[in-house]
Specification:
Two copies of one chain form a homodimer.
Chain A: H1 4-7, H2 16-26, E1 35-36, H3 39-45, E2 48-53, H4 76-83, H5 88-92, E3 95-96, H6 110-118, H7 130-144, E4 147-148, H8 155-171, E5 177-181, E6 210-216, H9 222-226, H10 229-235, H11 241-248, E7 251-255, H12 257-271, H13 281-287, H14 289-292, E8 302-307, H15 315-322
Parallel strand pairs in A: 2-8, 3-4, 5-6, 5-8, 6-7
Antiparallel strand pairs in A: 1-2
Helix pairs in contact in A: 2-8, 4-8, 12-13
């Protein structure tokens, strides 16, 4: 079996250079999102928590009508980096991507679609499977000559997302641990955990902090896959984030649905930040018994938590107000 | 009738000096809250909006057990200024205030009470009337020798709250207009508009920007009272914010309940900020026809909106997730 250092000799889809380049490229266009903290939450967690509020990032990213670009809040940096890496000819023809909007399930995030339309983006519906989405994107590409940017499996996207933690470390240099939501593929029955593309991975060399990922138990389990060599053989050449996760993520913490909802509630009621469930996974992980009781993380005193996304449908809430 | 300049000769409970002093006093203890913007909301409003997210301010303020309790995100700066203006003997005996927690109405903000208890503050219930709250506070004061700080009718509170706009103008000096939620007394049937104390008034001399206030139509109407001399005669010596509002607020915009809920929805879904209805009133005002169609405000191009409070009970939302 390869050692960790041997594995790191391979070329990754993103590295510290490409992330720094992305930061220079996108900084005029993005929001430098604030880092919030709460003594109440510090007290509940028994650590100092630094919430990087990437959910305040600009939303859908639209280039040239009528071609679509869908992006949840978490993906703006990546999308921005991908777009501004194009030459003018490419950019003029537009960009196509696909996104996991689960329109046919209960509590689907209608507001995500509304946001796309608000930005004059074009939404083309497909069946809610990855295969169907990819087929539809191919068809649109053939018809229009637009450029396809995969929503997460693209070095430019990964590098753009990587600027989140680069920025976070500039804002809160005392951080010794970063925890990010993970999982591009989600099988959760209720499909609320729409993390989508990009893990916001900061590929530091040398690593100066612990880098943890958190995913819902309901998701197709990356934690299990990491431990399964066959899975690596099959997928790691196809999925660009996979070797990065494998080699740089120190551990993956899985959390129960109910704990994610509880973390989301703390985000709303204490931090006053409206995240979607996937955005609250990092907090859920930090508050989980698995994390608290693991001696490996006892010295994680200053934890950066990336809060991403905000595409949760709050219709039930507004309805209750107007009753 | 007095002219505006004559009226301004009187002494106010807070002025630019007391606000600057408050800023120095409280700055080590408060969060410098971020200013967020959204191109989507700018586009909806037709102006540039700068959201001062005071809802991220520290929450309940707790000094010495078992007394005191001040709560509500909006009031931290004021409370902080009041407490740190006390001498050590006074502070040792604790502080009492009262707050409008409407526990007996539908959708009462339970989380507000929970937050108070979380900080080891003591909640003493009274009947939900101002008179009953004041009587209860008096009783506690007599029993304990604690210091009473009125939740909004106190120069130290007003000065502390005034630091919000002072800070906002430092962060976004291009602002030409500031709009704040107003109304200490709320009669709204559903009692959701718990603005509570302090108007965050920035008493500038000379005024270099338009200073507007917004209140729900359901509230005891300050806009109407301002135009009613009898009301001034009766109240302006009792209510310290009254002469400040009368002399410095350029106009009061009243907004419908349904428009406040819509503004709140935009805050959650686009800004991703979890405000309570009262906190979204400023945005509702800016989007109202009354504001849009008033030629007096046509040159208000850079509007600072203070988003305050977050004590909205989202129980219905969590219930929907866990169904």
């Amino acid at each position: 079996m390869e050692t960790k250092s041997q594995m790191r000799d391979e070329k990754y889809a993103a590295d510290i250079s490409s992330i720094r380049e992305a930061q220079v490229r996108i900084s005029p266009f993005i929001h430098k999102t604030p880092v919030l903290s709460s003594e109440t939450l510090n007290s509940i967690a028994g650590r100092k928590l630094h919430f990087k509020c990437e959910c305040f990032q600009k939303g859908p990213f639209f280039v040239s009508s009528p071609l679509l670009l869908i992006s949840g809040a978490f993906k703006f940096r990546g999308a921005c980096n991908a777009i501004f890496s194009l030459n003018d000819d490419q950019a003029a023809k537009g960009v196509v991507t696909h996104s996991s909007i689960h329109c046919n399930t209960k509590n689907a995030p209608k507001c995500k679609v509304e946001n796309v339309i608000r930005y004059n983006g074009q939404v083309i519906w497909s069946e809610p499977t990855m295969r169907s989405r990819e087929d539809m994107a191919t068809k649109v590409l053939q018809e229009t000559g637009a450029v396809f940017v995969h929503p997460y499996n693209d070095g430019r996207i990964i590098s753009g997302q990587g600027t989140i933690s680069l920025e976070l470390l500039e804002q809160a240099p005392q951080i010794d641990t970063i925890i990010v939501p993970i999982s591009g593929l989600v099988n959760n029955l209720r499909r609320r955990f729409d993390i989508g593309g990009g893990i916001g991975c900061q590929v530091h060399q040398p690593l100066q902090f612990e880098f943890l990922a958190a995913e819902p138990k309901g998701a197709m389990n990356q934690a299990a896959h990491l431990k399964e060599p066959k899975y690596h053989m099959k997928y790691h050449k196809r999925v660009n984030t996979r070797p990065i996760v494998r080699d740089f993520v120190d551990d993956i913490i899985t959390v129960e649905d109910k704990d994610i909802i509880e973390a989301m509630r703390l985000c709303y009621e204490i931090l006053k930040v409206a995240v979607e469930p996937s955005g609250a996974i990092g907090l859920a992980a930090v508050l989980s018994d698995d994390f608290r009781n693991n001696l490996a993380w006892k010295d994680c005193n200053n934890i950066g938590i990336i809060l991403s996304g905000g595409n949760v449908d709050l219709g039930v809430l507004w309805d209750s107000f107007l009753k």
